[in-house]
Specification:
The protein is mostly helical. It has one domain. Helices cover 76% and strands 0% of the residues. It is a multi-pass membrane protein.
Length: 274
């Protein structure tokens, strides 16, 4: 008579299960995005409206003020588009906080904790779904930018590098937004928590040069995370000087992503212990 013994899953099997569960959660969140497109439309409309406003209303005046030539709207269009694209990525991460908080308040995450699935897959599914949404937003904003006169001179490699940087930033901010959603008490507070990040590009080089700012504000603009990212995008797409901005951008994205991931894991674990 033989006795059956339980076999512990190998690391490769555990990784396979975690990947499968993450893909399941990804499909779930993508279906929810399809069912509730209003959030995506709102997120797309904000950068598009800002782009049209700054190009057609302020473009002629601001272009001359930052040395692009008075009334040279085309030159200012090229200048401002990288900043608007950056703003679109940042605003796109708000949905993670909202979707995670919705799952928390409705009890779905508590139900997931009782199921035989990888714990990490729940948040990973939210982050990956947001990455797909950000790609869609980037395509729309870039299309509108071309329609109003944006003319970059980037090569295919430079376009790929710019897209990679934007997706890295989106990935990092998505984890930070997920952590905010986990600690938020209501969906409304979850949607408001990441909003300062959306407006931070205004206090950088997205719409005007930092040289045109007062001393205190210029110091903040030069050392906040989105200015080096914006300057790197502008250099890749338009051929301006990048210098150390690329390495600084990667360092900021890595730091934000690490902070967001650790915070989200801690908040998720504390929620399970309550």
């Amino acid at each position: 008579m033989t006795t059956a013994t339980a076999t512990a899953p190998t690391p490769s099997t555990a990784r396979s299960h975690a990947f499968r569960d993450a893909m399941t959660m990804l499909r779930r969140n993508l279906k929810r995005i399809q069912r509730y497109p209003a959030m995506t439309v709102q997120i797309v409309m904000l950068p598009v409206l800002m782009l049209l406003l700054f190009v057609y209303v302020f473009g002629g005046a601001i272009g001359g003020g930052i040395g692009l030539g008075a009334g040279d709207r085309d030159a200012y269009t090229n200048y401002v588009v990288p900043g608007v694209v950056l703003m679109a990525v940042v605003s796109g991460t708000i949905t993670v906080a909202v979707s995670v908080c919705t799952d928390m308040t409705e009890g779905i995450i508590n139900r997931f904790r009782t199921m035989a699935i990888s714990r990490s897959s729940v948040l990973t599914g939210h982050v990956l779904a947001n990455m797909v949404q950000v790609l869609f937003i980037l395509a729309l904003v870039t299309g509108v930018s071309y329609a109003i006169g944006f003319r970059p001179d980037a090569t295919a490699v430079e376009w790929a590098a710019a897209l990679g940087l934007l997706l890295f930033l989106a990935f990092s901010l998505s984890w930070l937004s997920a952590a905010m959603g986990l600690v938020a008490k209501t969906v409304e507070s979850a949607s408001n928590a990441p909003m300062p990040l959306v407006y931070l590009p205004f206090l950088g080089s997205a719409f005007v040069t930092t040289d045109s700012m007062p001393t205190g504000l210029r110091w903040f603009a030069e050392y906040q995370p989105f200015t080096p990212v914006n300057e790197t995008l502008r250099g890749l797409l338009l051929g301006t000087e990048i210098g150390n901005d690329a390495w600084i951008s990667l360092a900021w994205c890595t730091g934000i992503g690490l902070l967001g991931h650790l915070w989200a894991r801690s908040a998720f674990r504390k929620g399970a212990e309550r």
